[in-house]
Structure formats: C-alpha cells, structure tokens
Design brief:
It is built from two helices and two strands. By secondary structure, it is α+β, with helices and mostly antiparallel strands. The chain has a two-stranded antiparallel sheet. A hairpin with a 7-residue loop joins strand 1 and strand 2.
C-alpha cells in the first residue's frame, strides 16, 4: 500500500485521555540505527509538519470509511 519495505504503527495513550497513533512508512534510506522503535529518533531530524498537515484530509476520509461517518463522526 505504501510501497515502502516496512510500515510501522505505534499507538500511544498512557499519558493522555485520548488516542495517538503514529503510522510511518520506512524507506530504504532510513539507516539501520533508526529502524524499528528507533525510528522515533528521526522526528527531530526529518519532521515535516507541512507535509503531515497535507495528509490530514486523506487520513480523515480513511477513518470515516472504516468507522462509518455516521457511527463515529469526526469534528471539522
């Protein structure tokens, strides 16, 4: 689906009363010492908040399709 050799899904929620999920595709250029759980070390090195914001509408539509927009409506 992503075309990447690996896709990681990490879920966080222990410190907040809501749900956080990190979904990231890992390409071949990610060094071995930044793979698996260590991929989080890249957040300061490669973070692109503008690119992430552009993904929000597609992610929202995917959640709505999966959950059913009537069953779990997402805020605008």
């Amino acid at each position: 689906m992503t075309g990447a050799p690996a896709t990681y899904v990490m879920v966080f929620g222990e410190n907040h009363p809501h749900f956080h999920a990190l979904i990231t595709a890992r390409d071949e250029q990610v060094p071995a010492d930044r793979r698996s759980g260590d991929i989080l070390r890249l957040r300061n090195e490669r973070a692109d908040s503008e690119a992430a914001a552009r993904l929000v509408p597609a992610v929202r539509r995917a959640y709505e399709r999966l959950a059913g927009s009537d069953a779990f409506p997402l805020p605008a």
